[in-house]
């Protein structure tokens, strides 16, 4: 049986929050006013033309506030229409230009005079009512006795009954005087539909509405429409975007009753349902039941795509509006976290599906965009490199300007903004004077400029070249000495040079491939097994990166930032990311893929595998994984079919039985011949054997072994 989690009837009187409306009998419009005032409603409509502003000749009556109330105008007991009652609050505006005129006005209203005159202030108030596609205007005449006329004071109100309107319509109301002495008042109101009114037996257009039951059955959502078998109705699913027009998603004309199933991955917060009978002038009623659904919010961020456009534009594509902010950050060539440029640049609210630009004068490949909520960083893209080239080894300088044209320069580094003329032990501080001269001589690129400061990107290539000049000179001298030795002892050295040449070629070929090893820290025995594998791979040699050897960097940067830096460096150098599957790793993958509603399991501060899934999974889902990723698992620890199918788009090897093929993939095109590869596989297997023996202990042995601790097993 499905378990209802949201139940709402689109029929009348079923909404938990309803309005009980006053009844107005008769078709005639009426007007009434506050005690002491006299008012009159002119017959017939008037032209809805406010006219231009004119100066008040003295004190005049003007509308100050509009107030509305919903009522029912009933022709019979069960034949009513929705009507909008409007109250206009009035006040005296302006002063007498001539004191004598004021004195005459007061004397005419003095009750002690033998023959007092009925002095009063009169005004014509226009009410304009618009509800697409109709417009209606009425003219109200009101008089205020002179005794109540006090400039700047409220004198009361006048109430008009009433403007008829359709259920669920958006109405606009204006009020102004004729002639017009001030800017007109306006009010926009969204009228409720049948769900929000206690009118089931009064408004006939609501009688034919279908009943809608939204319920959850497992992960899917079911829409059950309970109507008669012969009744035809329209059903529309659409995205109600706050920052743009309604975007239809699915529409169909159906005959009841019907049950429609929605996949849980299709749910987003702005997904709304509209239903109406297929009859002329029928009432359409909409609900948006997924606004607070956690699954819908997770799906929304997964569906969002951040695009960077040449050369300073960007756009966030998403089906719904996102409460997020975007800012620029600076990504250094040597990796590390992307450093936000706030301040000096401000954060910007995100408007989805719209091209936006940051206030930069020039584009730069190291400038990236971060989109974040108040909780965390949601996404980051550095794709401007496609149009501006790869990352550069540039130093970003932040110039701060004071009120008296006194400014200061500092270099943006992971440790903070380092002043150029300081004694800090950083690269920017050591080259502070040279960088300051580069800015003054125009060798740096100005990215942003304002009254508060500026941003400069200064190339660092020439300083690296100067550093290596002495190294190259020493190498040339060493080469000359070796050449002389070869001339003296050509024959004895020839064989040694041949062997040296082969070793250098093999070593250079192997070292040219980097490997990033990702695993789930299931228990201590499995971590020792991973460490043994990483050490054995380094002996081939390969350049292996694993979080076991970088705990200090993980603590300083955080697991996600460390993974970002290692992954970027590995892929830029043509390396490969190795996903080492274990019961814990498979469980983490399933948690992400199945989008479980239960709270995620807490992970350790150094668990790079758990932190990396937010970036690894999109590569597999979007088809970017082949050539970048390789999978592996140990024979006795995990069955072959336990690896999720999503990750089988890349080669997955069983260790140690498939070690030769695994090593061949790791070393890439420069892998040695099969005989040499088999020897290296045997070398790695021998290095792994002690760790494997310790990990897979026989039953009854001391210790738990791999995957035998309290957290072992594939968690579902």
UniProtKB/TrEMBL annotation:
GO terms for cellular component: cell surface; plasma membrane. The keyword Isomerase does not apply. It is found in: Cell membrane. The keyword Transmembrane helix applies. InterPro entries: IL-17_rcpt-like (IPR039465), IL-17_rcpt_C/E_N (IPR027841), SEFIR_dom (IPR013568). It holds the Pfam family IL17_R_N. Keywords: Cell membrane, Disulfide bond, Glycoprotein, Inflammatory response, Membrane, Receptor, Signal, Transmembrane, Transmembrane helix. It comes from the Eukaryota. Residues 512-664 form the SEFIR domain. One of its GO terms (molecular function) is coreceptor activity. One of its GO terms (biological process) is positive regulation of cytokine production involved in inflammatory response. Its main location: membrane. It is a single-pass type I membrane protein. Homodimer; disulfide-linked. Heterodimer with IL17RA. Heterodimerization with IL17RA is independent of the cytoplasmic tail. Associates with non-glycosylated IL17RA constitutively. Binding of IL17A and IL17F induces association with glycosylated IL17RA. Forms complexes with 2:1 binding stoichiometry: two receptor chains for one interleukin molecule. IL17A homodimer preferentially drives the formation of IL17RA-IL17RC heterodimeric receptor complex, whereas IL17F homodimer forms predominantly complexes with IL17RC homodimer. This is Interleukin-17 receptor C. It comes from Ovis aries (Sheep). The lineage of its organism: Eukaryota, Metazoa, Chordata, Craniata, Vertebrata.
